[in-house]
Every structure is written in structure tokens, then in C-alpha cells.
Amino acid sequence: MDLAATPSRSKSKPRSSPAKPVAAPAESRMDLCTPSKPTPRRKSKSTASPAPMSPATPSTVRRSRRLLETPTKAAPEVQVKATPTPTSRGKRAAPSPKTPAQREPKRQKRHPRKRAYYRKVVYDGGEFEVGDDVYVKRREAAESDAEDPEEECRVCFRTGGGVMVECDACLGGFHLRCVRPPLRRVPEGDWACPYCEAKRAGKVAERPRPPEGKRIMRTAREKLLSSDLWAARIESLWREPDGTFWAKVRWYIIPEETAAGRQPHNLRRELYRTNDLGDIEMETILRHCSVMSPKDFRDANDGDDVFYCEYEYDIHWHNFKRLADIDDELETKEDPNDEPYNAGDDYNSDTDEDSEYDEEEKPTSSFSARRNQSHELAANSRKGRIYGLQKIGIRKIPEHVRCHQKTELEKAKATLLLATLPKSLPCRDKEMEEISIFVKDAICNDQCLGRCLYIHGVPGTGKTMSVLAVMRRLRSEFDSGTLRPYCFIEINGLKLASPENIYKVVYEQLSGHRVGWKKALHYLTEHFSGGTKIGKQANQPIILLIDELDLLLTRNQSVLYNILDWPTKPNSNLVVIGIANTMDLPEKLLPRISSRMGIQRLCFGPYNYRQLQEIITSRLKGIDAIEEQAIEFASRKVAAMSGDARRALEICRRAAEFADYRVKHSAQSTVSANKGDSVVCMGDIEAAIQEVFQAPHIQVMKNCPKFGKVILVALVHELYKSGLGEIMFDKLATTVFSWCHANRELVPGYDTLVKICCKLGESKIILCEEGSKHKLQKLQLNYPSDDVTFALKESPDLPWLSKYL
């Protein structure tokens, strides 16, 4: 994780007075400054001194005289006296003197120059090309924006002295020796500093303060993420007739500047590419940065000026689109008549008299007016004294987001999100201890034959989160050197297009290459059988976590057989942990598969109301936003239905949104709000429960025909009984017929059931597989089974349905 120090950009010299130019040597007409290369991704940071810059351009040459390469559209020919291009470093021959009679024809034939477009420009010591990502000044006369210091250690506040590691939470740099306890090597994967770890655990840890009188210099990355700099992608480069250089750029924005704001899933270095283009002067560009795709960002090793971009943001409609789904952008068309541009031939070929002529006859006023009109809405307009992205369609960053001063209700909403990683996982200590003992025994045992653990339980009981929490704890033990190396692979069955694709995913995780599932199966079988090994971690134990294990079932159950057969091979070093919602899944498998699954099982029971109350209280530790009675009411309501912790968290979060809206609405009015209004009360919880359990699809279920209710209950019953996510229509119809016959109801026909299923499919209550053979079509419930239970458990016209729920 070496972080290469980015060389600072040298400040430009002031322009010289427009005196008569003198024929300068060839060296003075060529800017040979070393271009600023984009640094690779973060991780470890090297504290080497910045690369030395080449000598700056002599002051006798104007700023606009830069070395330009490979233009895309050459300027029209101007009849000037031809001058041989110098090939050596000697001085150019002095031009022959001209008489007034010789200058007169030239004065009549001279025409105003037009724009000239280029692919690459060497400007002010940096080489800029179409497609490069750059930093752009946001405001004028900000001298600090040009400063580019090295990043300092957040403990000793020094820039040198060894390798630095970056915290993935606060993006701060730390020397390996300054961390407590000190690190021997750069950790693999995500790493958080002790201060961020203490903050997650709810502890108070004061960060070190800089010495008195020392000023902390911010890097360009910190300025960009705090909205003090802009990032942009160069789309085209050109030179105006007056000699200034301009660029058309496509802007990047940070998540805080979108209409949705920063979300919990946003990375700290994430940017959005916009559909907004702007024209800026090259004077406003500082230096390069790197905005990478997800794959490149994952493979990047080090660097501080590296950012992540996966989506494009529409500033007018405020929606997002994945960049991989967008067609390749139109590139600048190349003119076949283009010729290389030579700045020296264009400017230094004129004699003293030509310079006087240029000063006398400047571009006409109409051309100047047209130029000002074309750049009137430019991004760095001088009138608005603003550099960078235009404000049209861009929402200003709220002050509470910029200052990180959130209200209690806003903190509660962010903490209760399902995507937020909790500080601790209560009520599952016993299960987590069993998982930890199982994994440690498998890692320490060199043979680990037939190691398989099956975890089952109803949805929302913390099965997957408990396993991931154990693996994070083991990763910290490995970083401290108390546990031997191992390889962890996590696979979710819902993300697989077909059960056979699991072979491809496992092989890609081990080797880093993609092959077909048949080749991947062959290579993996050889690897676990003691043949050809795969990857650099061939001799390390492999922990394979498969979530939604029941989705890997096929007709002959070959996928599950192969996966569970690999751990039984000698020297396979494979441990399989399977997670599913079905308790009796091993009994439904073939005997040869259930025997390989073993007898080690772990059951996660549903939460009771006390456990749900403890889970919500632990998340809201230190946040006084919800009354205790309101938390208990929500916990009891969910525990009576299903015991799903996710549903309880969602109800409390929605209630916090209701309370926050009420507080902000009352603050805008003239009537002062009471102090108790800023706390979630019983009424907010009741409103959230009504919304969650009486959503529009709940009303559709309650108002559907009598046989529609029977179909929904039969679908839930069969899915729970089989443990699968879908069921055939033929089997569902058989269940409906048997129920109606047993409870003395009128037995419907196949056509009636098909019509009712089509109506439920149109309402998106159930999902139907495409096809014309209705009996073999597969049906799937589009909403949680708890919603069906809540809607139909107390149906007045069909009271016998409650015994099947």
C-alpha cells in the first residue's frame, strides 16, 4: 500500500511586458517540463521526496508559447516568411531585414486566425491530453489551491520516515510504527485506524493534535472531497486566436452535491461523472488525478489522487446510470489534413515590424464580441468570480453535511439503516462463539477432512451477519500475527445466474482468471484432489461461505454434491459453511449428499421482543431520539408476527423520518415547537407500522377474490415446506384442490386458477415464469411471507386459512 508522493506543480511566472520579441534560442521556445503523471491508487504511502521539475520556461517567452503536439485540427495557413525548423540546439539564423515595400503585400493578405484543436498540450510544466482527469480551481485568486504538500502522518505530523498506511474510514495516513499496536507490514484488504475502530465501538478516543504553531496542509484529495476543488475530464483542447488555451471538460461531483446526498453505500473516494460540460481556461487546471472504474480501482496498488467512479449523474433529472451501460462517448474526429503544430514557428517567425503590425491590427471588435458571447456561460466566468462547475442543476451542500453536525433524528435515521454496519451484534454471542471455534479448528487442522457447517433459521435472525462478524474478528487476529493465513470466499446464491456459475466464482477468487463453468469445475476438482494447485494461496486453508444454499439445488443435485464432496478429499484444506432458511434441507437431499453435509448444524431462532428491543437500543446507543416505550411497542409488534430484526429496524427508521419531517415543518412555521416533538413517540411508531404492514400490496391481498387468498396462502405454505424460492403451478393447484376439498369449499377449475394467478401477476404480487405450458410454469412470491400472514391471517370469509399460516 505504497502511496507515492505526487510532485507539486511549480507556480507559473508572471507574464512579461509585450515588448518587441527578440529571436530566442531554440531551447527557449520549447517547454520540456516533466509532465505530472497520475498517481496510482492509495494503500501504502511512500514518503520519497517529490520528483525534481525541469527548468521552467524563460521569462522572455510568453506563457502562451507552449510546445503542442499532435493537433486534431490545424490552424489555417498564414502567409508569413518561411523559417527552417532548427534541428540542433544552436541559435536560429537571424531573419533577413524587410523593407516597407515588402511588408505591404503581406499586410493586405493577412486574415484573422481561427481556433486550432489539439490532442495533447504541454502547458505550464504539465502534459495534458484528451481523456485525462485533472484537478480544477474552484474559485479565483485562491493561492492555496496551487499548493500540493505531501500527506502528513496523523500521529507524528511528519512527512518522512517510512511507509504509511491509509485508513479506509477517515482516509488519514499513519506510519506503521506510529499505530498502536505497531504494524509489522501493510494489512491486506480494508483497514481502519484505532481511532475509527474506537468510534465504531462507541468509545471516546481523542485524536492527536498538531504541535502548537504548526499548520496542517491539506492535500488536493482532501480539498476535492471537501468541495474546495473540482475534478474534471478533458474532452477537447484548443487555442484561441488571441493565444490563450482552453479546454472543454466533463465535470465530476462528490455524492454530497447530488440531490440524494451521500448514502451509506458510497465510498469515501467515490465520484459521479455528470452530463454537464464546460469551457475553462488552461490556467485553472492544476494537475492530473485518476478517476478509475471499479475493476481498475480494485487492482490499483497505491496513490493518493485515485478516485472511484461507477455511475453517471444527470444534473437535470437527478438520476443515475451505470457507466458500463452507457455507450462509448464520441471521440473527437481527426482531420486528415492536420499538421503538427509548432509554437515557435507561429510566434517567433515574425520580425519586429510584424510584431508592430500585430499590435496595431488586433482582431476586430465583432470577433471579440463573438468570443465573449461564446464564453459568457463558461464555467470559470470572470464575471461571477467562480472557477469550475456551473451551479445550474447542482444542489448546494447543506451546512449540516459539510460541518458534520447532524440532529439526533438524522443520526437515528442513518444508524437504523439496514446497510449500516452495527458497532456490535447483540443476542448472538453463543452462536458466534460456536462459529469461531469451528473455523479456528478447521484452520489449525492441516487435514480438516469433511468440514461442513450448516446454519439455518428464519429470515432476519442475523445468520449471515454473525458469520461475517466472526470472519472480521479472525482477520484482525491474522493481522496481529496470532492466526495462520487463510483464504475467505463469500458467495450469495441470489447473485448467481445459474447454480453452475458457482464454479466460475470460486475459480476466479482463487486464480484471478475467468473461464467457463465446465473448465472451472475441472480445475477445482484437480486442485482439491491434490493435483495442479490454483493461485498463489494454494496451500492455505479455504473458508467457503455459501449464503442461500438451497438455491444451488438442481434436478440431479450435482452442484451440491461436488461442493460438499471437495472437503472430504485428503489435503483439500476446504471448509464449507452453508446458510439457508430451511431447517430440514439435509433431509430433503439425496443420501450421498446429506451424508457429506455432516451432523454439525447451528439453528438461529427468531428474536423475542426483549432481544429486538436490545438490538434497537444498541444501535441507538448515545442517541436520544426514540422513546423507550415506542421501542418496546415496535419490538412486541414485530415479535408477534415473525421476529425479523430487519422489520423492526425498518419500522423505527420510518418513524424517525416521520418525526424529523414534523420537526422541520414546525420549525418553518411561526409557532414554536415543543421540546418533546423532537423525539419519536408512540404515534410515529403506529404510523410506521400502518405504512409497513398496510402498504398498497397488503390492501391488494386483503381485497383479492376468495380463491386468490387460498392461492397466496398455499404458495407461502409450499415455499416454506420445500425451502425453495419458487414452485410449479401444477403442485400449487394440487394443494389448493386438497384444501378446498378438506374444508368443504367449492373446488375451482384449472382455468379459474390460471386467471387468478394472471391477475396476481399483473399486480406484481407473484412473479410468473414466461411460457405457454401453465402446469409447468414456476411461480414466486414477490413480497415477504410476513405480509401474506399479516393480510390473511384473520380473513373473515376464510377463517380456516389461519391454521396453514
From TrEMBL:
CDD domains linked: BAH_plant_2
InterPro entries: AAA+_ATPase, AAA_lid_10, ATPase_AAA_core, BAH_dom, BAH_sf, Cdc6_C, ORC1/CDC6, P-loop_NTPase
Biased composition (Acidic residues): 347-361
Subcellular location(s) of the protein: Nucleus
Signal sequence segment: none
Keywords: Activator, ATP-binding, DNA replication, DNA-binding, Magnesium, Metal-binding, Nucleotide-binding, Nucleus, Transcription, Transcription regulation, Zinc, Zinc-finger
A cellular-component GO term for this protein: nuclear origin of replication recognition complex
Domain PHD-type: start-end pairs: 150-199
Span list, region Disordered: 1-115, 332-377
Gene3D superfamilies on file: 1.10.8.60, 2.30.30.490, P-loop containing nucleotide triphosphate hydrolases, Zinc/RING finger domain, C3HC4 (zinc finger)
Gene Ontology molecular function terms on file: ATP binding; ATP hydrolysis activity; chromatin binding; DNA replication origin binding; zinc ion binding
Main function: Component of the origin recognition complex (ORC) that binds origins of replication. DNA-binding is ATP-dependent, however specific DNA sequences that define origins of replication have not been identified so far. ORC is required to assemble the pre-replication complex necessary to initiate DNA replication.
Listed name of the protein: Origin recognition complex subunit 1
Organism: Miscanthus lutarioriparius
